[in-house]
């Protein structure tokens, strides 16, 4: 525990003086209240891989701090298993793109992986190490919502980790099938899930599973559906919808096709006006600042948002 505390202190010292946009979630019911559809705009983005940028590697605690210093954000992260059974946070199955190492994550021990350094979006090595999933979950308590993608750790295994760490109030799971949704809910009915529900037919199918809508954020797609009935149906169940812009609008900014994100503001807002409540993005800092920098927190949820 002393080793873990030291790592967390080191990772957060650089930004300690900068206030964070925190989500104050103490119980699973707080998370459900945050994500309950109220009809009011929700000033919250979901940072894909935590929101990497120059000097800030993906899936890195320092990067998470950087994102939260600028905007309220959920953090989508990627658990992967090591050779000796530990679970680290790293997107790719291999190490070359984002670390100073080579080979597969699963072929290295945790001790070996901790010797590596993470690379930023420009491929430059930084001082930062791969964090373990336990380290990230401990860091996130009282700060934000973590969204755990699947990779090579199954939905049920992730549910068991959340349960073991008593993190249901602020850790969600991305679950890829309705069968897994049911399995996770059986393991722990307090766990919230992000579930792909891209059509009205799928929404109606989900409704028959017996899993409460309060446990779900509906991811409707990377190409946001135009079917108003889909959004209305999900909202009518009290759930929020999420869309992804990492594969479309964000790329125009990242690749330099558009120099100023403000030029794309009408297109991002069009997705919100269509019925999306949360945008998953590769550029949470500029996007969250642009969309929500002066936005008011919904009155009914004001106690869940804090900047300090």
Features:
disordered N terminus; 8-stranded parallel beta barrel; two-stranded antiparallel sheet; alpha/beta; about 300 residues; TIM Barrel
What name does CATH use for the topology? TIM Barrel
CATH superfamily: Phosphatidylinositol (PI) phosphodiesterase
Structural class: alpha/beta
CATH class label: Alpha Beta
What is the helix fraction of residues, given as a range?
25-40%
Number of helices: 12
Percentage of residues in strands: 15-25%
Assembly category: single chain
Q: Which strand order does the major sheet show?
A: 2-3-6-7-8-9-10-11
Distance between the termini: 26 Å
Estimated radius of gyration? 18 Å
> What is the element string, with H for helices and E for strands?
HEHEHEEEHHEHEHEHEHEHHEHE
For the biggest sheet, the summary is: 8 strands, parallel, barrel
Q: Provide mean pLDDT, rounded.
A: 94
Q: Which word captures the global form?
A: globular
The low-confidence runs, each spanning 5 or more residues with pLDDT under 50, are: 1-16
The count of β-strands is 12
CATH arch. level architecture: Alpha-Beta Barrel
Instruction: Give the tally of structural domains.
Output: 1
């Amino acid at each position: 525990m002393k080793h873990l505390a030291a790592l967390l202190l080191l990772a957060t010292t650089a930004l300690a003086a900068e206030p964070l946009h925190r989500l104050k979630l103490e119980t699973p019911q707080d998370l459900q209240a945050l994500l309950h559809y109220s009809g009011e705009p929700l000033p919250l983005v979901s940072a894909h891989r935590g929101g990497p940028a120059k000097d800030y590697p993906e899936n890195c605690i320092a990067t998470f701090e950087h994102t939260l210093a600028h905007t309220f954000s959920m953090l989508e992260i990627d658990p992967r298993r090591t050779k000796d059974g530990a679970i680290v946070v790293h997107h790719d199955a291999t190490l070359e793109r984002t670390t100073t190492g080579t080979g597969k994550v699963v072929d290295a021990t945790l001790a070996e992986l901790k010797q590596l350094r993470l690379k930023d979006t420009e491929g430059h090595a930084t001082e930062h190490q791969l964090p373990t999933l336990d380290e990230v979950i401990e860091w996130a308590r009282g700060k934000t919502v973590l969204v755990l993608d699947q990779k090579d750790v199954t939905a049920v295994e992730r549910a068991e980790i959340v349960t073991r760490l008593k993190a249901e109030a602020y850790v969600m799971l991305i679950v890829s099938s309705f069968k897994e949704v049911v399995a996770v809910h059986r393991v722990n009915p307090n766990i919230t899930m992000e579930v792909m529900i891209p059509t009205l037919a799928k929404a109606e199918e989900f409704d028959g599973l017996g899993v409460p809508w309060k446990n779900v954020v509906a991811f409707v797609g990377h190409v946001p559906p135009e079917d108003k009935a889909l959004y209305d149906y999900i909202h009518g169940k009290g759930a929020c919808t999420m869309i992804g812009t990492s594969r479309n609008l964000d790329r125009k900014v990242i690749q330099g096709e558009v120099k100023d994100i403000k030029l794309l503001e009408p297109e991002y807002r069009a997705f919100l006006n269509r019925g999306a409540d949360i945008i998953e993005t590769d550029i949470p800092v500029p996007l969250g600042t642009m969309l929500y920098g002066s936005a008011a927190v919904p009155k009914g949820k004001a106690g869940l948002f804090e900047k300090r």
